[in-house]
Amino acid sequence: MDVQTVTDAQSVRKLIRSGIITGHTSGFAPGYTQGNVVILPQKYADDFRAFCKANPKSCPVLAESRVGDPALPGLGAGIDIRHDLPRYRIFHHGSLTGEETDIAALWRDDLVTFVIGCSFTFEAPLIEAGIPLRHVAQKRNVAMYRTNVPTVPVGPFSGPMVVSMRPLKPADALRAIEITNRFPDMHGGPVHFGFPDQIGISNIAEPDYGDAVTIEDGEVPVFWACGVTPQSVIQNARPDFCITHSPGCMLITDLRHG
């Protein structure tokens, strides 16, 4: 079974809960909104919410849960954040201590979930416009990089922006800018293109997260702000406990995008 042929969000989430999908969600359920996830104890929620508001390009918040409630009814019927991501990352005091495919055993009554817009959402409109995306065609995760671009600090939260990269021909890049500007809740238009060293990326062939893809002759690397940014920030803030999505392993919501 090719799981990427399953096109509706609820069916994809069922495959995730059953353990059939445990990797990245790029290319899954086209037409549905995907989201990055950050789960923090309530004592950090006010500062993290303010951090997201101060950094809307990297961290456009789609939803915030009630304290201790794993449901996100505004994003989809029956969503349970403890089960509905293919893979989670667990952090203690800013250090990555493990990855899990289910976090029911780690759930606490003081946890608050933030769901942040994801650029996977606008990939379907790009493809529909005839703009090829190599990582989708190759069924790979998108390439992501830590940059030297600082975020606006709030409370304990600060750190560099993370970006996702898609190699495009210049004409396609111009069209991609126009299309993605229509998705401000999914990071909007690119933050940079053409010269990775200018934003602190020394080796484009070695992404910090995700999978490398070839940049062919006549193409330029195009960079969008990425919802993995909070993970670089968590490493600086060092909260005693945090759960995030594993890079590329998103929450697929029931929301349709236009």
Short structural summary:
By secondary structure, the protein is α+β, with helices and mostly antiparallel strands. It has helices at 9-17, 42-54, 123-128, 134-137, 170-180, 229-237, and strands at 32-41, 61-64, 88-92, 95-100, 111-117, 143-150, 160-168, 192-193, 220-225, 242-245, 251-256. The mean pLDDT is 95.
Notes on the structure:
With 258 residues, the protein is α+β, with helices and mostly antiparallel strands. The protein folds into two domains: 3-119 and 236-256, PSTPO5379-like (3-Layer(aba) Sandwich); 121-230, PSTPO5379-like fold, CATH 3.30.2040. It has six helices and eleven strands. The strands form two sheets. Strands 1, 2, 3, 4, 5, 10 and 11 form a seven-stranded antiparallel sheet that branches. The chain is globular, with a radius of gyration of 17 Å.
Low-confidence stretches: none
Work out the helix count. Answer: 6
Largest sheet: 7 strands, antiparallel
Examine the secondary-structure arrangement and name the CATH architecture of the largest domain: 3-Layer(aba) Sandwich
Mass-distribution shape = globular
List the helices and strands and how they pair.
Elements (H helix, E strand, L loop, with lengths): L8 H9 L14 E10 H13 L6 E4 L23 E5 L2 E6 L10 E7 L5 H6 L5 H4 L5 E8 L9 E9 L1 H11 L11 E2 L26 E6 L3 H9 L4 E4 L5 E6 L2
Antiparallel strand pairs: 1-5, 1-10, 1-11, 2-5, 3-4, 3-10, 6-7, 7-9, 8-9
Key attributes of the depicted protein:
single chain, 258 residues, alpha+beta, PSTPO5379-like, PSTPO5379-like fold, 2 domains, seven-stranded antiparallel sheet, four-stranded antiparallel sheet, 6 helices, 20% helix
